[in-house]
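Hi R.,

As promised, here are both runs. First protein below:
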Amino acid sequence: MVAHFEDWLAESEGIRFNLESGKFADGLTYHEGGHLVPEEEVWPLLEKFFRGEMHRQTLVPGAAEALGALGEQGDIVILTNIGHEAHGFRVEQLKGFGLDHEVVTNRGGKGRPVMELLRKHHPSRAVFVDDLSVQHRSVAKHAPGVKRLHMVAEPRLAPAVPPSRHAHARIDDWGLATQWILDQWGKA
């Protein structure tokens, strides 16, 4: 999503997103003047992108194959930090990629929603995959028994993002991550 967000910001909003910085809010500057985009304007930009530009998003390499293989061994739930009003859009977008999994929308920390998903599904083992350390911290706090995989699958962003100390592992490649997840599920 971030590479497409970067392109859209430059084309439509006159904003440069320094993807290689590894920072999100601090990486957005106006082309004109070069000053930072105020933090309170970042979520509205994301909302605008999600509402009108989801068609730009593509899957990262290996994601479809990995989710296909994992889906044969366990249940997959996609917990996404977009507003509830965008749930239908996200479901349709993922179905367009051949991904027909439960989708849960959320705002903020993902720990509580993960805890609710555990209560709903009663899995014997669970793995949480996310690119943001803050989300791993949230899940570690609210659902500490869940294995946590820090994955930054965007190749331009990954080198600038330090591994989360709240995750059990850091793997940025879906092919390698698939085996790690299967190992955690005891399905290797």
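And here is the second one, sequence first, then its structure tokens:
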Amino acid sequence: MSPRRYLQVDVFADRPGAGNALGVVLDAEGLDDAAMQAIAGWLQLSETVFFLPVSAEGADYRIRIFTPCSELPFAGHPSVGAAWAALETGLVPDTGALVQECGAGLLPVQVARQGAARRIRLRAPQASPVTVDDAQALLADAVSIALPLGALPPALWQNGPGWWLVELRDADCVRSLTPDLDAIAALTRATAAVGLAVFGRAGHGQDHDLVVRAFCPADNIPEDPVTGSANACIAAALHAADRLPGHAGRYVVSQGRELGRDGRIEVQVDAEGQVWIGGQVQPVIQGSLAW
């Protein structure tokens, strides 16, 4: 049994202990699906990525993404963290632009320097709303939170994983929310969604424009600290409604404060309507995995 290089990093974090933790198995060749799922379940992080040989022309690196319970075609914090890990470990040269291969296809990555630190941003798969029949009762149970809703009606969007999106009146409503995890789990299981994300606009004078919380109880993740795919869906929904916060298609999200891991996601919707998500990555653990 050969040891496999292993990293643990915090993504969308300005310091270790913030953002969302990610497990990174750099030498995953030879692991089958069951082994990768077992490792992700044993680590009990919201996601673990596994680096495998590239299979698509034009890709610089390839990953597979697993939660403790299932594989995802795309997820935001694993994708941003994987790009950082590929650069830091020398798997790919730092040319300022990369292409990631994952279950959702080929995704462009941009790399910028701030002194010695890298800032990574990645273009998320195109998000779209999903029409769901016979979910109104489950949805009513999941969002019956006695808090005022925002302008956008609750809806299911997907960009690989599916997310129920619920806008609340403002950031204070989001932060004070006590979710009904059983009702959210029933809704997401019935509609093949990964979770439910609530969001609200921050007040003036903050270092962020939007506050987000995301709940995935059916995947053994009651609340996810910082969630790239959900934020990309939210950006797409707000863009479609011509209600983007921030300025010129750019804004900053605060997520994870309620879990003691206050992260920051930098979001941009470009001129073509494509959503980019990015931020900082912090190394925490470097070692090897025997499996």
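A quick note on the second one: The helical segments are 33-43, 76-88, 136-143, 171-175, 181-190, 228-240. Let me know what you think.

Best,
J.
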